[in-house]
C-alpha cells in the first residue's frame, strides 16, 4: 500500500503545493521577519554604541577632573555613583594611588597610552566582572609632579548590565517575534478578505453548467484587479451564453432545414422500392436533386461556421472599386447594375470572401429588382462603404435584422427562389464581421439598400 504523507510531511511544504493565500502569508511572514530582524540589529548596535559612549564619556570626564585637581600633590580622587574606580599607575606597573573601591587591586589594565594619543578607552574582564575605563596619560608638564616619570590615570566603572548580558538582544528578539506574529496575522486577515471575492467567484463558476449559463459571478465595487476580473468574467459568460443560445438556435434550424430534403430523398427511394414499375430514371433524378440540396446546405453551413470561428485567411490589400467593376461586369442576367464609384478605397481582407459577399448582394438584387440596380463605392472617414440598391419592394424595418439570420427567408424571397437555403445573407454578414466590418440594410426612397462597411487598409498589414 503506497505511503500517504501526513500533515507534517516536508513535501507538503513545497511552495508549489501551497495555496495562493498560504504563499502570500508565508512571504509576508518571511519579509516581516527579515525586516524586523534588520531593525532589531540596528537598534541593538545603536543602543550599545550609545551606552558605551556615555560610559566612556563619564570615565574620561572623571579622569580629567582628577588630573586637573592635581597641583603640587596628588589629592584623593572624587568618586561618583557612576565612576568609583580610580588608579594612578607608574611606569613600573605599581599602583601609586587608588580610590577606596580600587585599593588592593592590581592595575585595571596594561593599556599604556603613548604621547601622541594620551586618552584611550578599554575594557578588562575578570571573574568578578568587566570594567570599562579610560586611560589618561598626563602631559609632560603635569608629569613634573612625579619628577618627569610617566604615569597613567585609570578611571573606570563596572560594565552596565545591559552591555554585560543578553537582556537587550533577548528583548529585541521577543519584540521581533511578536511583531512578526502580529504582522503575519494582520496580513492573513487582509489577504483572506481580499481573496474572498475570488473564492466567491470560483464557487459561482463551479455552479455554472451548459444548461444554465444565466448565472453571473458577484462583482465587488471599485476598479481594482479583482473587480475588473469579475466584470471580465461576467462579460465572457454573457458572450458564452449568447454563443450557446445562437448555436442551439442554429442547430435547431439546421435540423429543420435538413429534414425536408431528407424526407424527399427517403420518399423517392421508398417509391422506387415499393413500385418497381415506376420510372427509375425520374426517381434517380429526383433523389439526386434532394442530394444536391443537402450538399448545398451542408457546404454553406460549413462555410458559415468556418467564417464565424476563424479570421480571414490569405488576407491581402483589395481595391474595392476594381472588385466591383469586375464582378458587376461579369454578372449574368438581363438587368445590368449601374456603377457609381466615387473612390477606390482599399481594404485588408480575403478577396474570395469579399467577392462572395458582393455576388450574394448582386444576385439578391437581381432576384427582387423591377429593373434598376445601383452599386456604389465610396470612402467615409476611415471606412470603405459599398452599397447595393435595387428598386424592389423593400424590407420593412422590423424585418431587416431577420434576413441576416441563417435559414430565415421572407415570403417574397421564398416565392422568387423556392430552392434557396436562406444562408446567403447570413454568410455575407459573417464575412463582413470577420473583416471587422458590418453589413446592414439602410433606409432608401425605394427598395432595399444593403450597405457593407469595412475599415480602410493602413500602410502595414494588420497583426
From TrEMBL:
Reactions catalysed: ATP + protein L-histidine = ADP + protein N-phospho-L-histidine
Annotated GO MF terms: kinase activity
Subcellular compartments: Cell membrane
Keyword Kinase applies: yes
Location (main, coarse): membrane
Domain Histidine kinase: 253-458
UniProt EC number: 2.7.13.3
Pfam families linked to this entry: HAMP, HATPase_c, HisKA
Keywords of the record: Kinase, Membrane, Phosphoprotein, Transferase, Transmembrane, Transmembrane helix, Two-component regulatory system
Transmembrane regions: 24-47, 170-191
The name this protein goes by in its record: histidine kinase
Domain HAMP: 192-245
